[in-house]
Records
---
Amino acid sequence: MRTFAVQPTSGCQGSPERLTLVVIKTRYLLTPEITLAKNEKNRKPFPFLGMNSKTSSSSGLKREHEPVDILSSSQQPTSAFVIPKHYACHVRSVLISRGQIQDRVEKLAADIRSSYAHTTVHLICVLKGGSAFFHDLQSAFRALHNASGDAHVPFTFDFIRAKSYSGTESTGKVEISACDLSKLKGRDVLLVEDIIDTGTTMSLLLPLLKEEGLPKSIAVASLLEKRREDKDVKFVADFVGFSVPDEFVVGYCLDYNDAFRDLQHICCISPEGIERFKDGI
Ligand code: IMP
């Protein structure tokens, strides 16, 4: 066991925290138990990707492409879509349909590919929620690459598991089961995540990967980003599909106690759904 002090990414607010990192082969347990170092001046700059426009990513750099805004008012009735019977009364509305997700993922793949032109990017799928996004993203990425006729290998990939939610609430702790992080050394790494909500997961995970893995660069692609107008934004991803209202969403591998991962569309859960799956499937 060893203790690993992690500094917060810029923009992290609130009471000081510190992390204990327990390393058992490739298993990590991060809990915010001890004090994070406060002195931001000592923080070394790290080469995230990060592009050129109005929003700063967590690296302090800018992202070029803004996400598509999904408004609360654009929730669509479940009667307009095919919802499987086992979830018929458990979702209130469809927020983003499967077709819209696919079209957006294709564009994200194109944006990401142009940022990593001539480079083999190392994709890390953040399980379990990121798995549908990861699958569709790498598939679109591969199709674009193969059609281009470029000679380099477009990407390699690995998996990492991060768990921070219980039911519909963030626990504030992140449990991580990681791949062999020494494989990241000198690589251009792109984390593929389902949703940035409080930003806790990414603001703890990235410094860990940086310290332990020593990648050449690290960036984050997240399908969704929640508009948490009442709270500080702890983390801004480099590539984001959709900005969604501050609601608990399910489907496309996003879950509520492991339910709804098999739902194709991204939906808002109903009170009946909350009640039905409060103890799991
Ligand atoms: P954060 O650490 O608060 O940014 O939350 C990130 C993680 O919490 C994601 O990887 C998801 O697993 C989970 N999460 C956050 N919001 C939602 C949601 O609305 N639906 C399902 N999972 C969520």
Note: The two ends are 35 Å apart (CA to CA).
---
Amino acid sequence: MNSKDIRKQFLQFFEGKGHKIVPSAPMVIKDDPTLLFTNAGMNQFKEYFLGINKPKNLRITDTQKCLRVSGKHNDLEEVGKDTYHHTMFEMLGNWSFGDYFKEEAIAWAWELLTDVLKIDKDSLYVSVFEGSNDADKLEKDNEAFDLWRKIVPEDRIIMGNKKDNFWEMGDQGPCGPCSEIHVDIRSKEDKEKVSGASLVNADHPLVVEIWNLVFMQYNRKADGSLEPLPAKHVDTGMGFERLCMVLQNVQSNYDTDVFTPLIKEIEIITNAEYGKDDEVDIAIRVIADHIRAVAFSIADGQLPSNTGAGYVIRRILRRAVRYGFTFLGAKEPFMYRLANVLTQTMGDAFPELNEQKQLIQNVVKEEEHSFLKTLDQGLVLLDNIIKSSKDKTVDGTKAFELYDTFGFPIDLTALILGEKGFSLDEAGFEKAMQEQKKRSKSASEISKQDWNILADDKEQEFIGYDALQSDVKIVKHRKITSKKDGVQYQLVFNLTPFYAEGGGQTGDKGYLESADGDVVYIIDTKKENNETVHFAKNLPQKLEGTFRAVVDATQRQRTEANHTATHLLHQALREVLGSHVEQKGSAVHSKYLRFDFSHFAKLTVEELRQVENFVNARIEGHLPFEEQRNIPMQTALDAGALALFGEKYGDTVRMVKFGQSVELCGGTHVKNTRDIWHFKIRSEGAVASGIRRIEAITYDAVKDFYFENNRSLYEIKDVLGNAQDPVKAVVNLQEENTELKKQIASLLKDKAKNLKGDLAKELQEVNGVQFLAKKIDLDAAGIKDLSFEMGQNRNDLFLLFGTEQNGKALLSCYISKELAAVKNLNAGTIVRELGKHIQGGGGGQPFFATAGGKNPAGIDKALEAVKGYLK
Ligand code: ATP
Ligand code: MG
């Protein structure tokens, strides 16, 4: 059965059991401070497990794009080395939100695997949680055990410990005991020799876990204790690639049709052969795996970058490039060429790959290119480090510097050192690494208390589209502490006019006022688990009762002007540049807006003007805000609404319209485009290959902008003596300046000529050398000319000139070539040594060299010290 059918069979099976099939959530998570990437199918349903929101369907099934490269679930270092862990993989899942529980979950999993997919029952093992004696004092999962016993012989049921059979999403949050299903795909002979039961959970590549059925029934609190969840849920996850391995009768995920086309292509591009050499095989697996992670992230709108999620993606790509570089001899970008095959194999299930193919290729190619350049530079630096090493061991802190500042991979450093007969001080490297980790960890660490619940009010409705103030009650609050922001409080209200940061728009600020006038400022608003959380520096004195919640209207108004202008800008770019323009990121602040979009060339001045004019025409056109809330996705798409890749949309959406601009959007907007006043582009530039960025301003920021510009203009006119045409006046000045420079140069030449005669008279003879050390007033070029002219027709000259230019010192040493050879003198060495008097350094050739330094006061000392070389 091919992989496409396997995916379909899974989803259809659960559809037949009353589940709704939903699309995968994006792999890159936006607007969640606790998680960068989806690492399990359940992430997108967290809010349901926690009881914050109720799902429309109590039974759901899907295949979820997951990435396990950071945080609690990190498989990166395994990937490629083994045959069954990936960075990005698909997790097939079925969910029950307070609906069915263990009985159905277990029976259906078994039915699907053995009846429908016909996996041999004798190759399957299941595990059950054995209970724990630690602080949690959890009971053995007798319920699951009894259910399994009805369908599986008891010797195939394995009791598992807390590490394997108690699933937790993170340090806090929903959790519960689980039952895993393992499959033994070894040969018959091997099975007879060693029992499969003994290999379960023992990292055997042919006895692997394929499915985990999690029975969510607890919430892990901040203090580490468990509390029962209000309802019990089922959360299952099956590795799609591993299932394909079993059903396609192969012994590695990479031998399934999910990966073989990619591996073929890598073989063709790099001339490597898979299956002949262990190191080459690992490299090929790493590349086949990592291109998926990178391509899916880019399709989700996350480009490689220097921070956060983007940095994780950059590191994954670099890991693949360096495996290719080291083991496959790939010295040119090549990974981008895999995008074609990847879209052919996965584009059906994930259409975003097709639509974003060009972008994926551009971005990957550029990343590869720049990293290969880094590798080249790193090789040179490493060479220097080796040369300056006193013994055969290279200092760990130096290797760390190479890794940390230049991104030069440590394993490559170790490899190259090994080849040259050197070794790496690994302990030193490890120490430097740990210290840096500690520094960055303590900077980002946040500790959160458990919520203090005041009222059980599940409404928590956002009313900020229609109101900027309302009476609210505090439903819960907690204290959080971080190094960055210190102590803060989070507050949740029963309803709120505050907009939570999302869709690029910043969160509202404002204040909360109690009946007796106690005021607490709200400094930010964010979403957590789909709940609007308000941030404050302190809590109100009395938490009960009703408060007036007031949004800072001015900030909101400015932000809204920028948000609506962003929509108009998006429309303008598609009109002016073409419909290939897609939004790749946006930030809507109160002071400015930033918009990233796909386009292959720098915008011309004319295009920028057209874009500005287009937007301003719509502002002057007084287009009213039209909105439809809670309409089905399809209705909005039929109405021409633009949806974004990598964005998570619910079943129903909100459609926002200004004239012909129609977008799916949850943000807040002006009531009429006239409220934007005016739109002005401040800058346009590249963020990555094929991605441009525009920064622009609207509303009163434009006024400030013109005011500032105007003031500068008046000031310029003023310094130009009230010039009527300042541009002409500046051009005149520039011309005059060029003319003056020419005159100075010619005057200096004359001066040097005269000087030559004068200085020749000052030469002293010392030990058969014509010598002069003197401070003179010429620039570097003048001194050089002078020295060489004085040296003409002489073979016994030794000059040292010192000069002070713009507060800096310069020493120039000239020695006739013959003299340098006979007396074994070297101008380069001499200036380097004399350089210490002027706090600087330099070098050059044996017959002419210069040194610059920041201490002109030391020139005289240098002129004195040089005499030592004549002895
Ligand atoms: P393992 O012990 O093999 O790493 P896990 O305990 O981390 O697995 P779960 O967190 O229970 O796995 O995830 C559910 C399923 O997802 C697993 O049964 C497995 O089939 C699959 N899976 C987990 N991690 C990966 C990965 N890195 N690559 C591919 N599939 C995976
Ligand atoms: Mg794991």
Note: The mean pLDDT is 92.
